[in-house]
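Support reply, case 0932

Customer input (verbatim):
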Amino acid sequence: MIPFPHRSDLIDLHTHKMTVPAGVFAITNLFVQDIHKWPPGHGAAFSAGIHPWHLEQVDRSSQLRKLKTLLDDPMVVAVGEAGLDRGVDISFDLQTSLFLEQVCLAEKAGKPMIVHCVRTYSDLLEILNQHTARVPLIIHGFRGTREMAEKLLDRGAYLSFGHSLLHPASRQALFFADLPPERVFFETDMSSLGIRDLYKRASALKGWSLDEWVATIYNNYSSCFSSSGTG
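Our regenerated output:
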């Protein structure tokens, strides 16, 4: 059975936590090389992907084959995190190649992709100009500018916000209220935050109630994941 949130759930789009609190629906990230660590009977949804940080530590062909197999599992609702990172000393051509291979796997599986993007928003846009992804792309932990947010939204991407939204002086907090709410998600990633903290912060920035955000993010999830064949 494909995991899907209840309407009243708080949705944590991307987390590395292995335990999920009551009332929260989370997509737990799992790196392909760590699949053996997955606890039997874990009931939450998860994503699987090859992270750019790990490209020189793994047999890439083997990992891609494993990922393709994992995507047949209904508990795997998304590919990722996978993407591009100019903050690491790993060939960018290699990163781009592996990213595109994972995009293709996501398209074949009909599942969204959770994208890791560090100092590479312009690179991602250039890639998308040459290869229009046929599944939703969710930019996790978005920390770019207003202009970049608008460009990515124009390309059909979703933006997922994490702990940076809590900092009063962050540029994301300054323009968050102007973004189309139907293209937004929240995530805890590797932080100790609770997802409720981000819902509350978004409520304060937008002037919405918590219930309005719960309904909106549920609808966003339904639209993003159902349209990809995972809902």
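We compared this against your earlier run and they match. Two observations from our side: Strands lie at 10-15, 24-31, 45-49, 76-85, 113-118, 137-139, 158-161, 184-186. Residues 104 and 133 are 8 Å apart (CA to CA). Please reopen the case if you see a mismatch on your end.
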